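Milestone 3.1: sequence recovery, worked example.
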């Protein structure tokens, strides 16, 4: 096999909904794709689409310089890797299974001990979006591995490299997902408040989308304030903002809408003001978010 032929070979281990979408994206981009799944029948549709399959995970891994693992969770990754064993020697192992930063670092050690380079990836998006611009894969780990296989990885959608620490892609994933959850649980409470006041929630959603579209500059300036510790009065001074909080809390309570988050904001503002920082902005609450 020539060098060019070899570098156009990819193996995908794990053919659930996401692993199958990943294998399909490689096929669509012209990669010779070797697939394996614990339940062998899940390879059938991909074989029909042009993939090859192997009897064991080790045989599948041995076929390509780039071996992508996408299974359910960390335990499943351990099972697959233990059956792959030394077949990863000389390969680049890319694990895109959800998991923690610690698991990623452990997988990297496992790979390095067997002569493989390791990249950890996480998936921010849904299977139908694989291969499009509507999905993002943050990667971290071996820079050599990332640079050598960047064009293959681009078949999957948007990709970004976050540095040599294999755990950082998981941190990026956890932080981005947490941001969505924190924002969206607050949004659900606001929708209940709006609905309880007899306002059409769909009309409101349109206006809310306009407000969220204005947030990016604020997110950036808050990041800069947290980094520098220079808290200008973003959203106004805390002294002024805090005066609103009792009204916001009592409005929610009068409608039977949960007010726990507003009470938390008020409590943080009160503590910051009591500490003599009432002239600073909302971003200064950052100083109080670490648990003692
Ligand atoms: P899935 O459809 O449930 O598939 C799970 C896969 O893991 C199957 O191939 C399954 O093999 C395999 N597996 C489970 N336990 C195993 C074990 N002990 N040994 C070997 N293989 C094992 O899940 P998925 O949607 O493809 O998700 C895969 C990964 O992508 C997960 O980490 C998930 O969090 C992540 N992800 C998924 C989505 C999504 O929307 N689906 C979005 C972002 C990220 P069998 O077929 O033999 O059971």
């Amino acid at each position: 096999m020539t060098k060019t032929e070899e570098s156009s070979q990819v193996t995908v281990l794990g053919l659930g909904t996401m692993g199958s979408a990943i294998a399909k994206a490689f096929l669509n981009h012209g990669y010779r794709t070797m697939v394996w799944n614990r339940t062998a029948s899940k390879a059938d549709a991909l074989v029909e689409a042009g993939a090859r399959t192997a009897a064991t995970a080790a045989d599948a891994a041995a076929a390509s310089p780039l071996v992508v693992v996408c299974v359910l969770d960390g335990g499943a990754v351990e099972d697959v890797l233990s059956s792959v064993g030394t077949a990863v020697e000389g390969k680049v192992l890319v694990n895109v299974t959800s998991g923690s930063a610690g698991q990623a670092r452990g997988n990297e050690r496992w790979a390095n001990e067997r002569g493989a380079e390791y990249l950890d990836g996480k998936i921010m998006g849904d299977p139908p979006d694989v291969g499009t611009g509507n999905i993002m894969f943050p990667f971290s780990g071996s820079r050599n591995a990332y640079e050598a296989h960047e064009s293959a990885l681009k078949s999957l959608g948007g990709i970004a490299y976050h540095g040599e620490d294999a755990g950082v892609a998981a941190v990026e994933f956890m932080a981005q997902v947490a941001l969505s959850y924190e924002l969206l649980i607050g949004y659900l409470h606001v929708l209940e408040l709006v609905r309880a006041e007899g306002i059409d929630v769909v009309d409101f959603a349109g206006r809310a989308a306009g407000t969220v579209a204005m947030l990016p500059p604020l997110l950036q300036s808050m990041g800069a304030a947290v980094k520098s510790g220079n808290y200008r009065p973003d959203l106004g001074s805390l002294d002024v903002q805090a005066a609103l909080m009792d009204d916001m809390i009592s409005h929610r309570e009068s409608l039977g809408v949960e007010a726990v988050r507003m009470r938390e904001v008020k409590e943080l503002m009160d503590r910051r003001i009591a500490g003599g920082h009432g002239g600073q902005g909302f971003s200064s609450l950052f100083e109080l978010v670490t648990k003692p």
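The pocket of NAP is lined by residues 14-19, 37-39, 42, 70-73, 76, 79-80, 97-98, 123, 126-127 (CB under 6 Å). The chain is about 50% helix and 15% strand.
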